[in-house]
Amino acid sequence: MAKVGIVMGSDSDMPIMSKAADILEELGIDYEMTIISAHREPDVFFEYAKSAESKGFKVIIAGAGKAAHLPGMCAAIFPMPVIGIPMKTSDLGGVDSLYSIVQMPSGIPVATVAINGGANAGILAAKILATSDSELLDRLKAYAEKLKNQVVEKAEKLDELGYKEYMKQM
Fold this sequence. Notes:
Layout: E1 4-8, H1 14-26, E2 31-35, H2 42-51, E3 59-64, H3 69-77, E4 82-86, H4 95-102, E5 111-112, H5 118-130, H6 134-161, H7 163-168
Parallel strand pairs: 1-2, 1-3, 3-4, 4-5
Helix pairs in contact: 1-5, 5-6
């Protein structure tokens, strides 16, 4: 049963939303991904948000650009955590999306990651789920250790090669 719902308003959001899915897969978390427009098909959206709890979702990750209503509307209906991913837009660079998602009214919170922050949305969903899943918590700790080791390896490579040679290999 999927524990995380991933929803976006357009397939143009897929490159960013797939980063959340990749993290969830790496950590062994089941998810369901779909495209629903809160504006163009509100009945479908309302059914999705109303049925998410009965589907077993514990967290919804919702990505949206411009008016960015999808995360906030999910949070208004779904009783558990919603993580919003503001999409970078051509008009205002994603600041419009960020403000729309982060400025929710009192009582309807949306945890919001950086503009185009798909990977962090996946990690945050995993951290929320790990509060009641010790095996997942262990996988998250191992993931964090892997990230640390990647930085250490890059630093060692820089020390070994020097700045100019290191930059040539990037």
